[in-house]
Amino acid sequence: MATKETVIIVHGTFAAPVEGKPGWYEPGSAFCRQLDERLGAHGSQARCWAHLEECGEELRRRAGRATPHFSWSGRNSWTDRSAAAQQLLDELDYLIDRGWKWKLVAHSHGGNAVLEAFDLDNPNRIGGLTGNCVLLGTPILHFASPPKMWSKLVERLRISTSPMVHFYGMRRSIPGREPSLLRIVAAAVVSLLLWVLAANYLVHLSGFELGSLIYESTRFWMAAIGAVAVLGALYWGTRYVAAEAAPLLTGFQAIREMVMSYPPRLLFINSERDEAYGFLAGVRAAEAWPEVPGAKNSGRQWFEIVVRQAREKDVQRYPWDGRRLGLAIAGIVGAGLVMVPLLASLDISRSIPFIVSCLFIGVTLIALIAPGPMFFAVAAPWRLTEAVFFFAYSLARRLLSDYARRHAWRTLQELALGVTGSPHPLGDVTILRCPDRNFARGEFLYEELAKGAEDAAVAARSHSLLAEFQWMQQQSDTDFWRLDQWRDRIGALAADPNLIHTVYYRHPDVIEQIARHLARSKEELYALRRDYEVRHSTVGDATY
């Protein structure tokens, strides 16, 4: 029975399927035809999307997408890539259950979805990849928290108090997910408090006294304390012996890891001149615009501005003069209302009707003479309330604008890097072309983009940029500053096929690189890894 092998292609950002516009990765595309041809030349039975005829419709139905072949939203968001990673895992499990062997090709941020799907950055990951993978032009999002002051203390506590750690090895922290001492202490204290409150409530609800729940027997407690002391001494004695034997056991652990090593099935193909990598690395490294000295308004200046704005709004909404007279009337009426209960308490209640009548007559006379100020006096509570609300609104807007100004660049960076929704803070994110040698326990390979493909793409890119400059020179002053026109030109330039970031799936030399790796056997991969270890004593970003 022939082996069933398929090649799944994961597209990158902004490359989701569009009706009427076939994608480079879709079945029957030029890339798929050329890759199938080169795979056959290398003796591989795998073909692009070979599984679709058997189970494409079922996979489409299960994923709830419009296409039988794998695709995702293509949005530049960590949340969307995470969803794509889970969908890819489910699809691979489905194919494995039906006897298919898989291989993967991923482009751009589609490669980050693949890396997340297999959790390759987890040092405690069990098992290795079962199919060869090629990541094309992937700007690797590496997450690593900076060293914390109490990190070593947490590690010592973990090693000292974790049972059997010397026999089974210490679980290493996952980069970007290192423990925090403050969080550990807070979790323990809050949890203990909740347990105490729950126990106190349940004991009180049952009607028991706390002392009645303790077994009253001196012999029982002496025996229990002795047993606990003996068992604790035996345990910690064993731990001490295990700690003394740690070097020997570490050797056993190294042998175990060597025996359980896996072939480097993951290949990164990238270029230092890749536009996506250069843009994202530049965005990550760029600093926010500094504050202009003396540009921030003081609190007093801001308050004076708000008062002036409130006065101007009041003038627009209630266009009457005599505001001071109106305020005086409002003050007199208010004082009269306050004095009514005061006069009543002085036992001069007979004078109250006379005083109120005089006030009423005076107010009526003023209303006849100056109706505008009188209306202002009547509406004074509402207008003062409006002023208070305007002040609160202005204060909230000032606080939000200050916050937005401080975090605007960080937000733009997160949007550009596509890490919105990520649990990792921006400070933990680094953009790499090639991971360090400890990534995925070293189970990866790295190749530079084929020289011929890179040179061809650079020449084509220079021609495209020259054409753009010529277009700019031909524009009139009016057309030159049309923002909609710039938006369309920038979008067209980003989708230009004459870019290094798109040459990975267009140039025959790169397609040969892809096919060569997908067709490699386990033995060839092991040999390549040993050869790389000999030729590269140190491995760093973009040098491997």
TrEMBL record:
Listed name of the protein: AB hydrolase-1 domain-containing protein
Keyword line: Membrane, Transmembrane, Transmembrane helix
Superkingdom field: Bacteria
InterPro entries registered for this protein in UniProt: AB_hydrolase_fold
TM annotation in the entry: 180-198, 218-237, 325-346, 352-376
Signal peptide stretch: none
